[in-house]
């Protein structure tokens, strides 16, 4: 209980901080050169590279995936950025760092981070009431409708039953039409009182931004996040991935091999919940953002506010609950917050994480602010490796960071 109280008191303190964006132009050069005040200088990455190589080389021999892209950032260094396998297993077309994957629900973390960027600029607030910009979102309980904020949507605490209208999202209905169906939802709970995972409701957060800024969510992602970070291959529309010649095609397992399947249109009508396309190289940029390396865009104080636990998630039978040392899990804004005990110390370690799955793509992403590392793994098939790949890589990183090759220097 003490640990929980400490976490929430810390969050309240961070919430009280008022960040102020100075309005200076953010150029790619400024982003690239942004560095923390104290940085870890890694003299040799060979040991870590070999350790990570061994994981994926063995899994490739076991035919555990058609293709995979891995990004690892330590401090302000991209220390590992590789692909294994094929974009098309059938004709043996190799992947590279610019091959495009769909990332499914990792899009939720991107969306919440977009909100954090805009909040740092004092342009939005997690407390923004939905009915200010979305009067067409009506509920059976008027007091609940007036109480819902964008923060409730980003943390899955809007009070809706589990996966409300995900079926309509997957049927391809526009979010603007789905919004008009919300007044038919029964069994509502008070906003903020329960955790209940959503796709349709989460995607409504993007509709709020569209009306507030009079711009599409696609253009807002491009202008506010992708362009400043030089994520030049990341996109939010079906046509972007359908027309690109360098795509990691989705695959299904067949006997001892994999066969490619078509890219479908699911979730491009709900971009904030699951409609983002990206590459291994672009994921390295996003991971650096989460570690606070690009503070002109998003500083560490605002990252910390973003990942402060909002609600405990008591859902059982989740794969991450079987990770070594697992203790507790919460949901913040678009991120899961896991706590783990340590075998060699009394320390409780915190890992921010999200998984994604769409159209036979599978993805995993995690980072630690205290330990200063971030990891993303993108598969173009339902690999059995996915559910445990994060703790496997984290263990290699921690072992490497104990190496005498690691020194700390003041910049």
Structural account:
With 411 residues, the chain is an alpha+beta fold. It has helices at 2-16, 28-33, 46-61, 106-120, 142-147, 150-154, 166-170, 175-179, 200-213, 217-226, 238-243, 271-274, 280-290, 300-306, 386-401; strands spanning 38-42, 67-74, 77-88, 93-94, 100-102, 251-254, 257-260, 277-279, 311-312, 326-331, 336-341, 348-358, 361-368, 373-379, 406-410. It contains 15 helices and 15 strands. It has a 9-stranded antiparallel sheet, sandwiched between helices. The longest helix has 16 residues, at 46-61. The two termini are 39 Å apart. Mean pLDDT is 89; it is low at 1-42.
Indicate the topology.
Layout: H1 2-16, H2 28-33, E1 38-42, H3 46-61, E2 67-74, E3 77-88, E4 93-94, E5 100-102, H4 106-120, H5 142-147, H6 150-154, H7 166-170, H8 175-179, H9 200-213, H10 217-226, H11 238-243, E6 251-254, E7 257-260, H12 271-274, E8 277-279, H13 280-290, H14 300-306, E9 311-312, E10 326-331, E11 336-341, E12 348-358, E13 361-368, E14 373-379, H15 386-401, E15 406-410
Antiparallel strand pairs: 1-15, 2-3, 2-14, 3-4, 5-8, 6-7, 9-10, 10-11, 11-12, 12-13, 13-14
Helix pairs in contact: 3-15, 4-10, 4-14
């Amino acid at each position: 209980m003490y640990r929980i109280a400490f976490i929430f008191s810390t969050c309240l303190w961070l919430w009280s901080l008022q960040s102020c964006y100075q309005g200076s132009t953010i150029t790619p050069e400024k982003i690239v050169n942004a560095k923390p005040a104290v940085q870890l200088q890694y003299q040799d990455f060979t040991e870590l590279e070999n350790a990570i190589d061994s994981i994926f080389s063995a899994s490739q021999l076991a035919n555990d995936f058609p293709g995979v892209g891995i990004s690892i950032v330590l401090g302000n260094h991209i220390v590992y950025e590789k692909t294994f396998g094929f974009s098309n297993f059938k004709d043996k077309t190799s992947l590279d760092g610019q091959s495009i994957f769909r990332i499914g629900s990792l899009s939720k973390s991107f969306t919440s981070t977009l909100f954090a960027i805009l909040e740092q600029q004092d342009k939005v607030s997690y407390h923004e009431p939905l009915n200010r910009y979305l009067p067409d979102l009506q509920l059976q309980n008027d007091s609940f409708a007036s109480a819902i904020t964008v923060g409730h949507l980003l943390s899955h605490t809007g009070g809706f039953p589990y996966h409300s209208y995900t079926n309509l999202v997957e049927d391809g209905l526009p979010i603007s039409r789905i919004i008009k169906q919300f007044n038919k939802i029964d069994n509502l709970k008070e906003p903020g009182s329960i955790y209940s995972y959503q796709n349709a409701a989460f995607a409504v957060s993007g509709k709020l931004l569209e009306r507030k800024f009079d711009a599409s969510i696609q253009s807002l992602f491009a202008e506010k996040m992708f362009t400043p970070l030089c994520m030049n291959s990341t996109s939010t529309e079906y046509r972007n991935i359908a027309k690109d010649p360098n795509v990691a095609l989705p695959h299904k397992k067949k006997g001892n091999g994999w066969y490619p399947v078509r890219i479908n249109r699911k979730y491009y009508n709900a971009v904030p919940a699951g409609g983002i396309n990206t590459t291994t190289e672009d994921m390295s940029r996003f991971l650096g953002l989460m570690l606070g390396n690009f503070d002109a865009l998003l500083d560490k104080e605002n990252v910390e506010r973003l990942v402060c636990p909002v609600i405990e998630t008591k859902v059982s039978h989740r794969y991450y609950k079987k990770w070594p040392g697992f203790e507790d899990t919460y949901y913040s804004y678009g991120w899961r917050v896991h706590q783990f005990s340590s075998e060699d110390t009394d320390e409780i370690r915190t890992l921010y994480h999200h998984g994604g799955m769409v159209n036979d793509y599978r993805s995993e992403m995690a980072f630690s602010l205290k330990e200063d590392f971030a990891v993303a793994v993108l598969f173009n098939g339902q690999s059995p490796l996915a559910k445990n790949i994060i703790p496997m890589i984290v263990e290699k990183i921690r072992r490497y960071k104990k190496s005498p090759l690691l020194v700390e220097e003041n910049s």
